[in-house]
Amino acid sequence: MIAALEFASCYVYSPSGCGRLSERSRLMRELLKEGDARFLKHYAERVQGQMCESPTLAGFLSSADVLVPVPGCMPRSDQGRYAATKLAQALLEQGLGRDTWNGLKRIRRVQKSAIAASSARPSVALHYESFSIDAASIDASPRAAQSLVLIDDIVTKGRTLFAAAVRLHEAFPAAHIRAFALLRTKGLTPEARRLLQPCRGLISFKGGDARREP
């Protein structure tokens, strides 16, 4: 078990807030989930700019990183259909990484957190059990990589990312593992004041659950 996972994100997502910006954040989520090519290219460019200009995110992603997309809630034979895979490729095209690796697999379906009641959302343990490192691709894996970055579309509590990081750590114990999500959920915010809010923090495991700060 790892103690904590460093993560970063660029934009906030308000699932229930009122007002124009909250509505726009939900549109961003929809386009991200759909894998809209123009949206991904535009926001990958924005991320690249933030990695250069934002004091918070400067240097978090670099051309030395291997990007590891986090699979969605259902196993798929075609990893390219996942939103995180498309996002990772868009970031790679902006020079934010030296390669992508799709060896992290979802082998068992989990409930979508977005549509599940709070008590029914998958735990860290359930996510961990649903992930596997693909043995068939292990020979082509980034064993020599010193820096692995999990890429996901949205981070909420951080359960998925933390469980994925534990799986990666088991396979690559010497690697520096961290995570990046384009959006982070701010569920208790009545109205988003701005969407671009670069963030760098930690996801830890406390009291049997993941805790994201901030």
Quick structural gist:
The protein has about 210 residues and is of the alpha/beta class. It is about 30% helix and about 25% strand.
3D architecture notes:
The protein is of the alpha/beta class and 214 residues long. It has one domain: Rossmann fold. Helices cover 29% and strands 27% of the residues. It is built from five helices and nine strands; from the N terminus they run βααβαββαββαβββ. The protein has helices at residues 20-34, 37-53, 83-93, 124-130, 159-171, and strands spanning 4-13, 66-69, 99-100, 104-106, 131-133, 147-155, 176-185, 196-206, 209-213. The strands form two sheets. The chain has a seven-stranded mixed β-sheet, with helices on both faces. The protein has a two-stranded antiparallel ribbon with strand order 4-5. A hairpin with a 2-residue loop joins strand 8 (196-206) and strand 9 (209-213). The longest helix is centred in the first third of the chain and has 17 residues, at 37-53. It is globular and about 50 Å long. The model has no long low-confidence stretch (mean pLDDT 91).
